[in-house]
């Protein structure tokens, strides 16, 4: 019985501003301020209200204001009835506006101070101030045709990144939730259980556990915290039966604003209207390092500020604030020769930058295939193995934006402590083929290698809930080929050993027999990691001498991905015919097989790429661990090591009842890219 409304303001068919979403409210209060450009008064300002949904937005009605009917220097209140000609509802609600038009040079000076742009000082601008009765405040600046010489696109570029837009993007805290266990969950013993956590538009889904009334998850989730939004944390308990039907078992809410900052709170939350409860830890901590700015106020451009940030990540501070691993600065300069998405041969491009779950975006440059953004974005680095993804979209009014191109840059590929300026070719969504256009970026990474190494052996951050994967003949075929490649390598090794046992080649069998006897007679346990170190050294020599190129496997992987486009068309055609709907159950089985094949192939490729020095940072880290293991195994008897390991495992929960289980080796391998990645 509620909605998640937000408002769009449009002129000439273009969206100039979108308000934040007010969740679960039919009487929303926004409390926002924005600057909008208006060139003439013979226009209608459209106010459109939408209900935010997970995948799309539902239209809830619209109204308009004729700017020419407003009186200068006078505040008027208007009650606008929302209408939707396609709806059967007579009463769509109303929106109340306080409007005021004022003229004067002082207001242009206010813009000058707000945007730090000296060239605006010579223009005389008019002013239209508007406010909702439900406390949205808007200031619309109107420039006369005779006095305004500034281009509309540059005007738009400066206005779109107003303080309110920055405010809507920048989070100032981090909510860390550790989901521990459930108690007496109703129906938990009859079906598989999972949890959905929602904070604003951020969603996580826990792993699905087997049938149990007292399931234990021990998972950690990080949410962005916006102190001005007053969002409630919604927690839902779901069950899934053998037929994949899902049913809501219960839910509860937590008011994040009521929790003390910088403190871990242990909460046992009873389910509303149902028996059972959930035990979890919730910690709210301030977050720094997120910013959007102009090129003239670049954070790392100031030598003193750069020195201060570098000092924070020096070696001597390796064990201070262990979660603060590094700092990333990205300058989004411009793009050239983009794909034309409109009928007029132009596009309205903007950029979205994503680092893990962190996401920021630029303003939109309208009607331009060679846009210049010239903005600086900074992110805190939570995992040095994350990949920065920069995606260019075309704004398409009320419709979802059109994809124009994408680049993915691993943080470890950026040279540390220096700007890396580059021209990057845009690629398609899967990063398999080049798209049209290039983008110019400057990247600078500062990080602490000790903190980054420690983080490598901990679980990766979970991604926000995304759409379910679909069956793809191309991906299934690719995964089968990848698994077949690894299987053939294992089979060839077995055949080699078999040929030695059968004495198919006398010389080979004699050498193998001598090596076997000597190894078994003289080998010690510490020699196992030492032998692996020798393998690292051998492969490193091949890489440095150029005898082996790491791009060969990547090229082979591209060949696997480079299937004919006809297969993609076949997939689309099969979807059109409803084939997937008709074999829904078979599809789920195929998707499961597809995922399992991908996991097996990726696991084998990651082990191979660790030894192949594909990511030098990880290979060096593995060498250090193996060297330490060699020394430990040489000086300490195996029984003591096994005893220490067993005692640690048995007492781990006694020492820390809320410890999250993890496997350091698997966590390490999860950072190593597969051939496809």
UniProtKB/TrEMBL annotation:
- Protein location: Membrane
Membrane topology summary: Multi-pass membrane protein
Q: Could you list this entry's UniProt keywords, alphabetically sorted.
A: Calcium, Developmental protein, Membrane, Metal-binding, Repeat, Transmembrane, Transmembrane helix
Cellular component GO terms, alphabetical: synaptic vesicle membrane
Major localization listed first in the record, in broad terms: membrane
Q: Which SUPFAM superfamilies match?
A: C2 domain (Calcium/lipid-binding domain, CaLB)
Instruction: Specify the domain of life of the species encoding this protein.
Output: Eukaryota
Q: Which residues cross the membrane?
A: 92-113, 125-143, 510-538, 615-636
Where's the C2 domain?
1-80, 157-269, 303-424
- Keyword Phosphoprotein carried by entry: no
Q: Which GO terms describe its biological process?
A: regulation of neurotransmitter secretion
Give the protein's cofactors. Ca(2+)
Q: Does the keyword Calcium apply?
A: yes
Named from the GO MF annotations, one term is:
calcium ion binding
What protein family is recorded?
Answer: Belongs to the MCTP family.
Q: What job does this protein perform?
A: Might play a role in the development of cardiac outflow tract.
Which protein are we looking at? Answer: Multiple C2 and transmembrane domain-containing protein 2
Organism, per UniProt? Haliaeetus albicilla (White-tailed sea-eagle)
